[in-house]
């Protein structure tokens, strides 16, 4: 089996372990995010399965690169290099989409009632999503309790314990006690946190993809030239070696 530089071999193996950890982080990000509320309020095609797919692909590529580096497999490393090139290029697309998404969210924060329909005119599916969100987040209405136009649902009503904790307010519609916080600011804050986390993940993937391309390219080059001669630098002689002279034995004088 061809031999490569041991430091490069273990460096690429450790790199792929870190790359797999990034994939696990992306999957965890999908598990902890509330995409149902975001989709129901902002009509975005954002699903947890998207994060599961991206995280799984990252982990498969990391395993491929780790196996190729550890076993010094040229085929696995070439396939890993191709995946790194395509993956780095693909980071531009989600980055652009996320920039558009953030500008849209910022415009909705500045103009919350632009194109917004009252809850009594919304579709039953959207009303159900908002009511579930109100019960979990303890809020009422997207922007205020007036979104319900007097038809305040039970999900907005406060309990006695919530009233004692100061989370409620009394409204004119039947003197009901409802949650004082609106739901949209809570969702908007979560969306911005989600944006920052996803953007950091994509930037990390782009940097790791570039590093993986460099490491795998060097290792593939070493595997293609296993019998390359080793060049040793020798210092040129600055002095001539002493010449050997013939030694003559001098006989001692004779004594008669």
Poorly predicted runs: 39-45, 229-235
Percent of residues in β-strands: under 5%
Secondary-structure element order, N to C: HHHHHHHEEH
Give the structural class: mainly alpha
Can you summarize the main beta sheet?
2 strands, antiparallel
Summarize the amount of helix as a percent range: 55-70%
Mean pLDDT: 75
Give the C-alpha Rg: 35 Å
User: How large is the count of helical segments?
Assistant: 8
Strand order of the largest sheet: 1-2
How many β strands by DSSP?
2
**Overall form:** elongated
Give the terminus-to-terminus CA distance: 81 Å
Oligomer: single chain
Protein name: Tetraspanin
Disulfide bonds: 139-168, 140-156
Pfam families: Tetraspanin
Transmembrane segments: 7-31, 51-70, 77-101, 198-220
Would you mind describing this structure in some detail?
- With 256 residues, the protein is mainly alpha-helical.
- It has a domain at 6-117 and 184-224.
- Helix content is 61%, strand content 2%.
- The chain has eight helices and two strands; from the N terminus they run αααααααββα.
- It has a two-stranded antiparallel sheet.
- α1 (6-31) runs antiparallel to α8 (183-224), α3 (48-71) runs antiparallel to α4 (74-90) and α5 (92-110) packs antiparallel against α8 (183-224).
Show the helix and strand layout.
Layout: H1 6-31, H2 35-42, H3 48-71, H4 74-90, H5 92-110, H6 124-137, H7 160-164, E1 168-170, E2 177-179, H8 183-224
Antiparallel strand pairs: 1-2
